[in-house]
Amino acid sequence: MAGAVHCAPVFAQSTQQAATDDSQTDSTSSEGQEIVVTGRAGNDERKKVDTSYAISTITQQDLQMRAPIGLANALKQVPGFYVTSTSGEISNGLRVRGIPSDGYQTVALLEDGIPIQADPGLGWLNGDQSLRLDQTVERIEVVRGGPSSIFYSNAPGAAINFITRRGTDHVEGELRYEGANYNSHRLDGWLSGPIGSSDWRFLAGGYYRLSDGQHHVGYKLDKGGQFRVNVSRDFDHGSVMFGVKRIDEKVGNWRGGVYTTDADGDVVSVPGFDDRRDAIAGPDTRYFDFLTPDGPYRFDASTNATVRLTQLTFDANYDLSDRFKVEERARYRTSWTRRNEVTLYNVAKASDLLTSLYGNAVNADAGQSLGLFYRNTGTEFGYANQNGNGLALVDLARSHTVPLDEFITDTRVTGNLDALGHHDLALGFYFANVNEEYNVNSAAILTDVTDNASVLDAYLLDAEGNKIYQFTDNGVAQYGAEFANSSGESDTIAVYASDEWQLTPKLRLDAGIRWEQIRTTGQVEGRETVDLDQSPTAADDSVAVGNGIFTPFSRKFDHTSWTVGANYQFQPDWGLFLRYTDAFRLPSISSFITNAGADPVVQTMNFLEGGIKFSRPTFDFYLTGFRSIYNSYEIDDYREEADGTLEPFRVFGDTRTWGTELEATWRPVDWFDLHGSWTWQDARFSSFVFTNSDGVLTDYSHHKLNGVPANIFRLTPGFNLFDRKLRLQADVNYNGDLYTDVANDIRLPSYWTLDIDASYNVTPRLQLNLIVENVTNTFGLVNGNPRAGTIDNSEAGQAIFIGSSLAARSFRGAITYRF
């Protein structure tokens, strides 16, 4: 591999020059001529059009124009990807080529060629919680399939490489302020240059922001930022870099809204609640004192997703000879993450919800009934049409804490030799040590359904309507609805090799192999349900707590991945490729963190892909067909136990997806360009048999995969005006309909959205930006309610249901000064 981060010479233009030229990259240069550094063997440069796998590049221009908030938003333009970003900036989902795994389980998230998190699919610690986008990121390279599973761990679907800036020969930098219509203020900046008169260079930069968020809850959702600094030096026969990054920030995490359908059958918000802007969370649901055997646990929803992360990075390479060099990348990371949130769990007409929760306690013969009252005012809930909807919610006030320490090293020898043709070679060794803790405490609470909902208390009433018993404790229906206390450690080792064999000037054969092993150890505290007897209410009568008995786990897994591919380059700008890959994902600490007795399996996959590539200065065209087979796909779901607590369980199935990816750019004239991407996929379960909670065996084989739309489309026309000082572009997006459950009972309809971006270079140093998202204020539903069941969803056929939709139209403006 040509050094996943050793790319500065390729992009060694000055920042001031970039200010003039970079904003028009799409209209003046051919994408296929970009030098690829991710997923490569050998030291020779390779252009995008020459690769035997699908790769997309998100340029600095793209990042500057769209200023994506969060990883998911940045990756929306990548064909083959389906991303959901309705949770906000973090804790979102990404599915690659029909692979239905949640979060980022099947992709490697890299920063300068080394993982930012050894396993980006940890429970309650998605990789996007450990990564922030700012102006220190130079570009993003995305390798789909192919060599990603050879060079990187946990990457059968893709490798996503965030390539950051390095120090420059002259002092230069950038300062950017961005404001938004939802009271968001953000300051980005970076500075680089030489250290005195030495050969060392430095880069320092980051951001700080304050924001109410697009779903305002009455307190600051986003606060904090990121800072990084690196020093680097080039030698006659190599280079070295030391880097430090710190994230200290809390980020909002929207947990969905409440929906119904109108007379035409279209999904809409329920009366009194606008899901594009409103949030159930608010000042009244911010604080709770959870009752526990060890005393009260203070819950504060404004903690949001708090991340405190320190990352140390070392990157070096040395030329062993004219043909071979050794590369070493190492990263140590320590972090503490807590996610406090109010998550919607169950919604119904208030009277029906009360009956389902407490109906067994009513003596109808004595004239007793149930009553619902506002906690703070004592006012009785108006059942018929309170808030215009008469609905009540069971929410989960959840607190998940995940401390994580890990060390990763990747040592690689790359080079080339001539023997029956030309070979670009790589041989590497990978090691990762991970230590994780996992702690959960939550409570079920009652609220109404309105913006910044109010907390409710439930009572038993006598025949005269007097309160004779209180079921809830200051709005808490049940303490200890969830509990976990566990810790684990894993050691992963891998060896891998790759050869890109140029048989003739036109024909190249590529092959790679990776063997990987993981050893996991740890312990999980057992759980019991107790009556705390700390409250006169029923809220603490059945509380899940630790029993003090820790069950150890110790398991080892290993597997081998391999790939073979061929590339035939008819002309420098025209070629074909074909590739087969056998890949896997090993179990990890997360497989045992809630169940020491779990029996996970190695999830195996195989992929077939082939494509046509064409790249000329006025036109780029990449068409890839693929087939993805995923064996032993693991679905994590929940069952509600008889005591009301939630018990996780796992089910396995096999899937098969056929699909195509198309990515093209047309530049007919200097002032206009058109970029498009389209993904079509037929994704289904090839085998899925499930026994539900009633003991009924159901065969869902051949059902469509949940969470995978058949069609995803984006078209981006762009205009360069006024001597190329003004850039205008629009993203026309289409997301096809999809099912949210394996049973295919809940279908989310398709939708179109429009985003508009503009940049204007006032001077070569001063730039203005405008970003308008969801211009048409589209109401797009993208998620259902996973807490109602991923397999058989209990909300199927219901008139009222929980889900997540797009945020309302938003405006962001930025001013950037480069020097």
TrEMBL record:
The keyword Cell wall biogenesis/degradation does not apply. The keyword Ion transport applies. Residues 13-43 are annotated as: Disordered. It is found in: Cell outer membrane. It comes from the Bacteria. It is a multi-pass membrane protein. InterPro entries: Beta-barrel_TonB (IPR000531), Beta-barrel_TonB_sf (IPR036942), Plug_dom (IPR012910), Plug_dom_sf (IPR037066), TonB-dep_rcpt-like (IPR039426). Residues 13-30 have a biased composition (Low complexity). This is TonB-dependent receptor. It comes from Stakelama saccharophila.
